[in-house]
Amino acid sequence: MSYFVFGFYALLLTASCLAAYFNKRTWFLTIFAFTLVSFVLGIVGGTSVLRNVAALAGLLALAAMVSYAFREFLIAIASNNMAKELRTAPLTAAFGLFVIFTYAIAGIFAPWIAPHGEAEVIATAFAPPDETMLLGADQLGRDIFSRIIYGTRNTVSLALSGTLMAFILGALAGLLAATTGGWFDQMLGRISDVIMSIPALIFALLMLSIFGGALATDTTSFALLFVFAMVTGLLVVVARAERSIMSWVIGLAVLVAAAAGFSIGMLVLFNPSEVILIMVVGVIYAPRVFRLTRAVAGNVVVMDYIEAAKLRGEGKWYLIRREILPNSTAPLVAEFGLEFCFVFLLVAGLSFLGLGIQPPTADWGSMVRENATLISFGDITPLIPAAAIALLTVAVNFVVDWMLHRSSGLKEQ
């Protein structure tokens, strides 16, 4: 028996005994169960397997320490009310917040963090790592590490934009449908049923095939953005104006100007192909948000305080903004996080198929496809972008679970 094996089991048994002595039942069960599993794996796989298990355990311990330190840092800089909430956050939520913070810093400061440009060719194809390239070069000789950093900005920004567009449209439609009812509710419900009946990936491939290629121009993108903004804004005008003709005229005039400004702003931030991708994602996932919002708001509109507000003469916009939405926050927050994960995975999947973010723009999904040849030679570099996708998805779910638990009013046992 090597010194490593002896020390490994001695450390685990010592930790188990200390946890039992101080009556830490959960820690004792966790550590001793890990000891038993390690014992079985050591018998089956030998010392090499135990080293991998120890490395994994050390990585988890490091993640727990980082999460704890980051949570304490947030508590120190937060306000009193926020600090009180953060003290109840589990380590998984703190880890999720740390990962999201890291991705945000990498995306915002990508030009300063990345040592090379995202499309800059600096070496031969598939050059190995050296002092100038941390992860080596891709199939065209571009620095993989730099492209991963830039991919954070491109992939996450598109997924977040698509999620915001889907959520704004779907939530507004769901709240207005629950408040109005009647034929308006039925019409929106049937439209959402039609869109949801088509599989998301097939619908995305169809729309990108139609609007991609030669149609991916500034004119087409502006028209699609303008229509989307008009439809979304029209829901607000319907809720605010109701039967006032003057309110309708003023609202439509403001809406046209706002829709034009929104379309121009999006074209400044994204190129036409990316705009079309965002629009497709928004159309696909808006019905899902509509369904959840309609169900949640439908349970709220029957409450007595909603009837009291109606008897006071309050309009639809007041009911949505002041009565229904504040009482529907918890499930909508959870839905936003889940929708972001779905959209993020869809954008990465489309890029992997070659229909998402187009070259030479760096994107994690396309990076996996472009460098997949390295896997056959035993190089795991192409799996790093895939791991980045999985890590962000898990981190967002950790934070969403904590926020849903906190908003639901449940107490820790």
TrEMBL record:
The keyword Transmembrane helix applies. GO terms for cellular component: plasma membrane. Residues 152-404 form the ABC transmembrane type-1 domain. It comes from the Bacteria. It is a multi-pass membrane protein. The chain crosses the membrane at residues 6-22, 27-47, 53-70, 91-114, 164-184, 196-216, 222-241, 248-269, 275-293, 332-357, 383-404. It is found in: Cell membrane. One of its GO terms (biological process) is transmembrane transport. SUPFAM superfamilies: MetI-like. Keywords: Cell membrane, Membrane, Transmembrane, Transmembrane helix, Transport. Belongs to the binding-protein-dependent transport system permease family. This is Putative D,D-dipeptide transport system permease protein DdpC. The lineage of its organism: Bacteria, Pseudomonadati, Pseudomonadota, Alphaproteobacteria, Rhodobacterales.
